[in-house]
Amino acid sequence: MIDLYTAATPNGHKVSIALEELALPYTLKVLDLSKGEQKLPDFLVICPNGRIPAIVDRSADDFAVFESGACLIYLAEKTGQLMPTDAKGRSRVLQWLMFQMGGIGPMMGQANVFFRYFPEKIQPAIDRYQGESKRLFTVLDGHLKDHEYLAGDYSIADIANWAWVRTHRWSGVEVDDLPHLKRWLDAIRQRPAAQRGIEAPPSRINLTKDGDEAAKQFSEQARKMVEMGQKKQDKP
């Protein structure tokens, strides 16, 4: 049994999708980020960085894993699925996983902050992060022109990138001019495990669109969290 400490974010959904794909039994432990539950002492024992997601493998002496990419690798290696075991195949998956961890996630995350949550509209910052997100999407599109999935068969690399890219509209970036990326997005969206994974837990808003009242309320709450974080950083 796996305990999954998570919230309704792309990083959180990466791990719930993987657990669903692998058909591993897990217990969902949802943390309220707006209340700072990810910073409580009990959770910091599991994840010193105070971020979701994290897992605890109850079948392996309560072994804890934090960082979403590390969780995906652990689960794939534990089951022998969603990642090849040969050196080259494993490397291809890890390359595209690192592409998401070091590029797609951070760039889209910053686009979200400056486009949605930051109290001031700093257009150069918005342009910078939306532009870099679009550049990375173009890299994916070019690769997917000749590949059904990112690294051979469907893998944790696809799960990690899809969980983020599917929310591109929330970051203010469109993909209508990227047909191969759109094909890949649609194909994974049709997978039952992916559908179940993005509902564990369900988001209060639909991150694939914007403009409704729920989205506005979500943005306002996130804006307050950003402001609180700024104030803590400004303290001597």
From TrEMBL:
InterPro entries: Glutathione-S-Trfase_C-like, Glutathione-S-Trfase_C_sf, Glutathione_S-Trfase, Glutathione_S-Trfase_N, GST_C, Thioredoxin-like_sf. One of its GO terms (molecular function) is transferase activity. It holds the Pfam family GST_C. Residues 1-83 form the GST N-terminal domain. Residues 193-214 are annotated as: Disordered. Gene3D superfamilies: 1.20.1050.10, Glutaredoxin (3.40.30.10). Residues 86-218 form the GST C-terminal domain. Belongs to the GST superfamily. This is Glutathione S-transferase. It comes from Limnohabitans planktonicus II-D5.
